[in-house]
Amino acid sequence: MVDLEHLATYVPRRILRSFAGAGTDGISPRVDHISAAILFADISGFTDLSERLGRKGPAGTEELSAIINACFGSMLGPVSRSGGDVLMMAGDALIVAWEALPDGSLHEPLLKAVQCAREIQQGSTRTPEGVTLSVRIGIGAGPAEVYYVGGIEGRWEMMPVGEPFRQMGLAESHATPGDIVLAPEAWEIIREAAAGTPLGEGCVRIDSADAPRRTPGQEPRDLQGVSRQTVEAFLAKPVRVLLHDAGERWLADTRPVTSLFVHLRACDARTTLDCMQEITSAVMKAASRFEGTISGTNVDEKGMKFMISFGLPPSSHEDDPYRATQAAAAIRTALQATDPEAGYGIATGRVFCGVVGDGARREYAVLGRTVNLAARLAHQSHGEIFCDEGTFQAAAGRVQFAAQAPLRLKGLSKPIPVFIPTGTTTQTAGAAKMIGTKRNLRAPCGLSKN
Question: What is d(CA 348, CA 388) in angstroms, rounded to the nearest whole number?
Fold first, then answer.
């Protein structure tokens, strides 16, 4: 059995601090109020690299996994040395927090965030494939709320919301690869200790900054009073199942997945705990009903996003694209009154799935062009469910679709055909078959033969 120390590397330290002394029965919807400097580091180059190496089969998957972990390792080292807490590893991005000092000051935490960012930018990774993985960094600061919500089938999510998360997204949107950009609120806090170049919307690109007075680094992870059940409640399904059944070495894989993004625009610092619980419960119930996995959450200046993946171990189905359309419809119905303009995007294709990180902090990630496409479709949708052509072709036998005008999406050279599910047809085939489960657990290094 995997020990608690190892399991705890899959969750932020904030969770460990918040639930010390509480078992599974002690978890209930709640909110922590914090003040922090928040860093958002977005890695460029993963999508092209994952597609290129994915075509090599199992050898390419192993190479991709090694490169991704080297890249994350080069970022997590500076985070650890500066005392940061990784709140999320959202696909190919990091969100890190340095909480305020006891007197409430954010000056030193911001200087630590900037120092960490400068170290990260010095460690951009050039891969054997000739692709440079560069990083764009945005930093915000201020009061925030950290929600602990869900509880469906014993699964919980940590959802941080508030001004610094809006700020970090705004700052990152003004950054180019290699830049460190501060939101105007963060810049005001350290402007006497830094020099920078003004950009749009009050953001500032950092040119130089004083070193923080002290950088003790992360203290050893304190697990006093933390139960195994509490940690496991915050783990994604593939991690919980495969660590128990097969061991972590099985977790790297390139496989066909249908990705569903839910983009909620109505969530901000004014969102109540009851509303956050309602939203997260609706997403969790739909994911559970159709056997998908919540494989990522994110909050930025554009709203709150859930990524649900259909086809991850241990629940892969031949009809995963169909399941994704039905889950999206169920979520939209449940949240219609809360956010009628929420966006829903679905795309189907091969992606990299596996553990990313290092010995101090790791997460199960789903990366690839399919994921990016689903996110961009959700961003373009306002109350509709936008599906790509791969999903349309796979689900057309059971779902009626209406074709829409092709969309031009960021990062894609050609317009993308879009299809909106309008209803279901009478199923002519038998019940969907489970695929890939036992075979994947037997395959060496967890590499799917699908």
Answer: 7
β-bridge partners, 33: 145
pLDDT in tens, the chain (450 residues): 678 888 899 999 999 999 886 655 678 999 999 999 999 998 877 777 777 776 777 777 777 777 877 888 888 999 999 999 999 987 678 999 999 999 999 999 999 999 999 999 987 655 555 666 789 999 999 999 999 999 999 999 999 999 999 999 999 999 999 999 999 999 999 999 999 999 999 999 999 999 998 766 666 677 888 888 899 999 988 888 777 765 555 557 788 999 999 999 876 656 789 999 999 999 999 999 999 999 988 877 788 899 999 999 888 899 999 999 999 999 999 999 889 999 999 999 988 888 888 888 988 889 888 999 999 999 999 999 999 999 999 999 999 999 999 998 877 778 999 999 999 886 544 444 434 443 343 333 333 333
The alpha carbon torsion through 26, 28, 32, 38 (nearest 10 deg) reads 100
Q: What is the DSSP string of 303-350?
A: EEEEEEEES-TT--BTTHHHHHHHHHHHHHHHHTTT-TT-EEEEEEEE
Say yes or no: do domains 27-212 and 235-450 share a fold: yes
Whole-angstrom distance, CA of residue 253 vs CA of residue 439: 13
Domain ranges of the chain: 27-212, 235-450
242 vs 331: CA distance, rounded Å: 28
Contacts of 358 (CB under 8 A, 6+ apart): 69, 72, 73, 76, 77
Give domain 235-450's CATH superfamily.
Nucleotide cyclase, GGDEF domain (3.30.70.1230)
Using CA atoms, how far apart are residues 209 and 195, in angstroms rounded to an integer?
6
The CATH number of the domain covering residues in 27-212 = 3.30.70.1230
Specify the pTM.
Answer: 0.87
The rounded distance, in Å, linking the Cα atoms of 184 and 170 is: 10
Give the largest Cα separation in the chain, rounded. Answer: 70
